[in-house]
Structure formats: C-alpha cells, structure tokens
Write a structure and sequence with these properties.
The protein has helices at about 40-45, 70-90, 135-140, 150-170, 170-175, 180-205, 215-225, 225-235, 250-260, and strands spanning about 10-15, 100-105, 105-110, 115, 120-125, 130. The chain is α/β, with parallel strands linked by helices and about 280 residues long.
Length: about 280
C-alpha cells in the first residue's frame, strides 16, 4: 500500500503493555458473533469474564497516532477509512462518527467483556471500538497464508464495516431477528462487513493508495478465513449449518462486489435471496 501521504488517525487508543485491572473474574458471557472476526469456537479461544461494569484498565491508555511503524500503519489505514466513510455519509446528508481503534497485547477489557487475542480482531458495538492485537497479522501470514499489507488493512476495514452497520442501525434491526436464525443473521452481517471493506478498498484505489497485487492479497485473505476453510482445518469436516461468517467463496464474492462498485447500496446482503 501507498500510505505515505495519508494522515494518521488520532482515534487510536494504545493499550499495548498495559494490563487489565480486576482480574478475569469467574463469570463468562458469550460475545455476540459480530464481535469477532474468525469463526472459532468461542469456548476454546475466548476467556470472557464478567461484564465490565465500572472496572477500568490499570492505567489510562494514551490516545493518538502511535509512533512505531506497525502502529503508524494501523493509524493510517484507520485514517483512510475515516476519510472514505465521511465522504460516503456526506453524500447522503449523513454524518460519520469514526470509531476508536484499540491496540492491545494478549487480553483486553471492552464493553462487551474481557477477551483474549486468540479470538482475533473484533468490534464491540457497546463502546463502538475496534480491538486489534497486532500479533494477529503475523498469524494471518504464517497460519492462514494470507500475507501482505492490504490483507491486514482488509481486516481493519472489515471491523470498520461493523461500525458502519452500527451507525446505520443494521445491527440493532438484526438483533431482533436472531433466535433460531442466529447463524444466518451472523453470516449476512459478516458478508456485508466484507462488502463494506471492499467499498473502502475501491476508494483507496481511487486515492492511489493501492499497489499492484494489493487486491489479490485481500481476496486471498477472505478465502483463507472462510468458515468452510477454517472448519476443515480445525475439525476435518465442513458443517454449513454452523457457519457464522460465510464460506470462502461468499467472503471473496462480497468483498469483490464492494471493491468493484464502491457503493454501499450494492452490499445489501439482507435483501439477497442467496448470499
């Protein structure tokens, strides 16, 4: 990616190296499926404790663009998403309120509970923050064989896509449609977030921020983290009824739709008879 001229977002809260206060507690809650990026079994990868309540981090985390290269990259990608979605919302006479991106190590306390980095990047609608442990990017390359800076940017843009869903009321409307259709609702939410990530990528290309091969990196990442691919790796078989994020083919297709059109109106996964 070419982010040299891109402003770095100040909406970054750097909690790396900061522990969490109050311990992990003894209770557990299930974080909503929209609050994690990978379709892992929450019982094996999330150590979610008591609801946050009034507990805080052991010390205040600084907010602003980090100075290290990895933090700068994340802040500039976030800044790019802010520029794009501000423009898109303005076109429909709306106002985009950017989320905060929290960088952390190993475990973090959010308004959705306490989570470990093994769950991958996630968005918490309760505090409208994105949570990212940068070690996931190494896992994306080494474990999922999806290298590249635009693959990493796609991960961030996907979580920003969930924030767009929160701002537009999609999450709230879909919450009442869960119940027996919880998995289907989850898949449609995730695929729409993929499409929204593609919409951002479309504009990033127009802003000359993409290098040759960047789009292929993102599409490869979408394929690598499809539910069918992950289930095959983890349990040796595919169970479509248990999908929460969509198959590799679905994730690639909806990401590409956003990349090609650049229009959020083309990301209506909930009105599609077949996602």
């Amino acid at each position: 990616m070419q982010l040299g001229d891109q402003r770095a977002s100040e909406n970054v809260e750097d909690r790396r190296g900061i522990g969490i206060g109050g311990g992990l507690g003894i209770g557990g809650i299930v974080v909503a499926v929209i609050a994690y990026f990978l379709g892992f079994d929450p019982g094996t990868v999330i150590n979610v404790a008591e609801q946050v309540g009034s507990q805080r981090e052991t010390r205040e985390a600084p907010k602003g663009a980090p100075s290290d290269p990895a933090g700068q990259f994340v802040a500039k990608v976030l800044g790019s998403t802010e520029d794009v979605w501000t423009r898109i919302f303005r076109q429909s006479n709306g106002q985009y309120r950017p989320p905060t991106l929290v960088l952390y190590d190993r475990q973090v306390r959010s308004a959705c509970g306490v989570a470990q980095s093994a769950m991958g990047p996630f968005y918490c609608p309760n505090d409208q923050k994105l949570y990212v442990d940068l070690s996931f990017f190494r896992e994306l390359q080494d474990r999922f064989h999806a290298p590249g800076d635009f693959a990493q940017a796609y991960v961030i843009a996907h979580e920003v896509g969930h924030h767009v869903q929160q701002l537009t009321g999609t999450m709230q409307r879909m919450e009442s449609a869960r119940g027996r259709e919880a998995n289907e609702v989850s898949v449609r939410l995730e695929l729409q977030a993929d499409c929204y990530a593609g919409v951002w990528g479309h504009y990033a290309g127009m802003m000359k921020q993409l290098d040759p091969g960047d789009v292929d990196e993102a599409l490869n990442a979408a394929v690598a983290i499809g539910d069918d691919r992950l289930q095959k790796q983890m349990q040796g078989r595919v169970v479509p009824e248990a999908f929460t994020h969509g198959s590799s083919e679905q994730r690639k297709r909806w990401l590409k739709r956003g990349l090609d059109s650049g229009s959020p109106q083309d990301c209506q996964t909930f009105s599609s008879n077949s996602v």
